[in-house]
Queue: 2 jobs
Job 1
Amino acid sequence: LAKTTQPISMDSYEGQEVNITCSHNNIATNDYITWYQQFPSQGPRFIIQGYKTKVTNEVASLFIPADRKSSTLSLPRVSLSDTAVYYCLVGPSNSGYALNFGKGTSLLVTP
Amino acid sequence: EAEVAQSPRYKITEKSQAVAFWCDPISGHATLYWYRQILGQGPELLVQFQDESVVDDSQLPKDRFSAERLKGVDSTLKIQPAELGDSAMYLCASSLNRGRTEAFFGQGTRLTVV
């Protein structure tokens, strides 16, 4: 399984755009990149998933360069409620959608 | 909106006692996961089911942990005997199948072993 590296923590002010980068140098051809969000005392929640280039939904955007060795989760205009831990997962789609979480990035949004 | 149901939400047990957690996945979801999450760390996969079959239990401490999903619907995770180090959040998740579909997590069971 591809190993992922994320910053342990990030700080932001309300209204700013936040970009969280995840490194996955040994990503395999059939691996997808998935991001989850977790609030304290709750289970993780799926945010977005992509394979290459750019994916956007109502919550976030995911940017994946051509070499796919990294990815960036972009949260536009964060609010206090975006304070959470964000996990980057890389896994093969043909073996059960591997859900192996690392330590994640703890995002703190302040006024 | 359909949810993954877990019970109990909180459990306090003495070490060496047995404890069980229950999970009811979203209807129609064939894949079910049990995770353990220690405070400050990411969730750690314990066991994965596809219908009633175990797909991956390589991280499950089989000397004291057991998991079953007899009819391929709800699932039970048991610890016997519980140890102090088992104190953690136990999360259940389900997904439609083993493809690249998103997984839905329950609220978890917070276990405290004293």
Note: Chain A has one domain: 9-110.
Job 2
Amino acid sequence: QQQVRQSPQSLTVWEGGTTVLTCSYEDSTFNYFPWYQQFPGEGPALLISILSVSDKKEDGRFTTFFNKREKKLSLHIIDSQPGDSATYFCAAEAGANTGKLTFGHGTILRVHP
Amino acid sequence: EAAVTQSPRNKVAVTGGKVTLSCNQTNNHNNMYWYRQDTGHGLRLIHYSYGAGSTEKGDIPDGYKASRPSQENFSLILELATPSQTSVYFCASGDRDWGPYEQYFGPGTRLTVL
């Protein structure tokens, strides 16, 4: 049973456009939601994260939104660049302070110049 | 800079053979993790550890064993490798010292079981 659902599976945007990735979850004990970015041939790396007590976290061109009532989160990338082309994973921490992350299946993003 | 290294980077094994994947971290993190990554499945947790001498089962532990002999090293062992274990394996380390919790990933090991 997939506990974190991520969409879309793949996405193509033009350079300068806005990218929106979404995730939903079911487990109400999830309280920490990181987004990881993975380039081909590399391991994932933390991009941005948010706690369930917040509804928005911004870091440069990257913003994550969290809706506790709907159990949804999203990642917005403004002014998308070809260098943003990568696979993006949302994740959730299983229970308070366990350190265990449950990952979504990932979204492959391609940004065309 | 956090550092997690994995060896080997590529491995071809035969069905029924024993495979050991190694991971070393210099971050002095208590927690270490083993994931496998397959197309369409994302990252799935196999085993994890909260410190030297401890191992815990993750979401898909069947067919795998883990060993944490020291703070720095965490191994994943496939006693009887099967073709279904062909995958890319990632090791990660993490600790909640301060700020947002982050797992630092190694570069991955590509395992092919023939």
Note: The interface with chain B takes residues 6, 32, 34, 41-46, 49, 51, 89, 93, 97, 99-106 of chain A (CB under 8 Å).
